[in-house]
Automatic annotation (TrEMBL):
Protein name: Cof-type HAD-IIB family hydrolase
InterPro entries hit by this protein: Cof, HAD-like_sf, HAD_sf
Keyword flag Cell division: no
GO cellular component: cytosol
Organism: Candidatus Lachnoclostridium pullistercoris
PANTHER family attached to this UniProt entry: PHOSPHATASE YKRA-RELATED, PHOSPHOSERINE PHOSPHATASE
Top-level division of the source organism's lineage: Bacteria
Molecular function per GO: magnesium ion binding; phosphatase activity
Keyword Hydrolase: yes
Keywords: Hydrolase
Amino acid sequence: MGKIIFLDVDGTLVDYEGRIPESAVQAVRKARENGHRVYICTGRSRAEVYPELWEIGLDGMIGGNGSYVEDNGQVVMHQLITADQCRRAVDWLHSRGLEFYLESNNGLFASERFAQKALPALKEYSRRKGKSQAEIRTVSDAFPDMIFGGELYRSDLNKISYLLNSYQDFLDTKEQFPDLENGTWGGAGATALFGDLGVSGINKANAISRLLEHLGADRSETIAFGDAAVDIPMLEFCAVGVAMGNGSPEIKHAADLITEDVEEDGLYLAFEKLGLL
């Protein structure tokens, strides 16, 4: 059996402008031709896995940072935030004046003022990734299929992301929701731009374990690629963990191999070095 490869999407398979380097496409296709399996392992929900990603050729996906597992069209696992948890979270975030969006396989559903309030944070996120703030003119540039005015009390959620006015917002939300997985993104610690809420106990490593059980495969056959702290559990779980050159210092410390930036053919070069091509 070939290797089982897990790719984070944003900053790993896709650059920070949403472009897929042609070398990355070729790496995935050649690896699969050689008998290896390739899955994306991402914080995105299935609604954010656009056709151009599937068209590369993938064996399946892990989404919602581990809440959803799919193998060749078959749903292996899907753990959801309950309707009650969603209602409590929506009411809490409204009461704090925190804008948010709900992440489900059926779409991304924004709160009432998210389009106006989130733009500075998204521009700052782009700037921190070394990109021009001008490249994000509207929230729709970052989230082209986001739904505005949709139902916010839902039972199909993988995750909730919310805009932080301060780090205290995250600390208070974490205290309020001990029954959910609490995290941040867009910066470490007090520099975080967003908080998120997910299914308790879920992470990318747990999801990979469930997929391996389904496949009847062993972790010794696995290779993981990522660029952010949320990817560390899967890099540590898999037999080989690869950090992108554009990755955070934390993930580079956890990696067995550091490759070049996503935009500098990092994925292809690592595949080549690992004998996958």
